[in-house]
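# nightly structure sweep
# worker-07 picked up a monomer target from the shared queue
# config: single-sequence mode, recycle default, output format = structure tokens
# input follows
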Amino acid sequence: MKFFLLASTVVGLASAACPNSCSGHGTCGANEVCSCYDGWGMGGAPGGDCSDRFCPYELAWAGAPNKAGLTHLYSECAGKGVCDRETGQCECFGGFEGKGCGRQSCPDDCSGHGTCEFQNELTFGTVWGDYYDGSAYGFRGLGSGATIPAADASWDADRARACVCDGGWSGINCASRMCASGNDVMDLRANTGVAANAQVQTITLISGGADGGKTAAADAPTDFNGKSFALTFTSKMNETFT
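# output follows
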């Protein structure tokens, strides 16, 4: 009888196996525990029977900080989509797209009247106040006032996007026509005897040299040899002229 029980136990151990044979996506290890291949698990967690795919991880759009105070940790589908465990592809919520739902989509694809651009591209635009203030660096002959903004270094600079509308269009999705602008008909000139004067803008180019500190050196003009520049004007109708 003892021999029979021992033999039965040995047979039982020999026939033990991992769950679902690890679904063909892992190896069966000690204690009948699957070691899944990369990208495979069960229900979004490692281990199990390795029957489910993982989806791409991207920086989460929202989430609670960890004990180190860090936010926007990596999350499956960036926390803005549902993982299809059969295909390993994210089904993104409205307003998000791309691998792992890692970038925003633009409203209505800008209605066909604009381009969808990243936040770090929106920092630079041909609008009032968006020019380089060289006087802050000791360059002579330049006025002070508006400065060009620095490149956006925020965590979502190359993830958040918005529409840049074509000329004559406006709105968050570029679906609204723009009308011509003009003075209010009720406006009054302080002095009706003074005729309107044409405005003239003067642009002065001063060489800064390789280190940015050269202002009036004799060889300054050589810094412009073989160089070119272009000016772009943007009207109130959002039309650009270069």
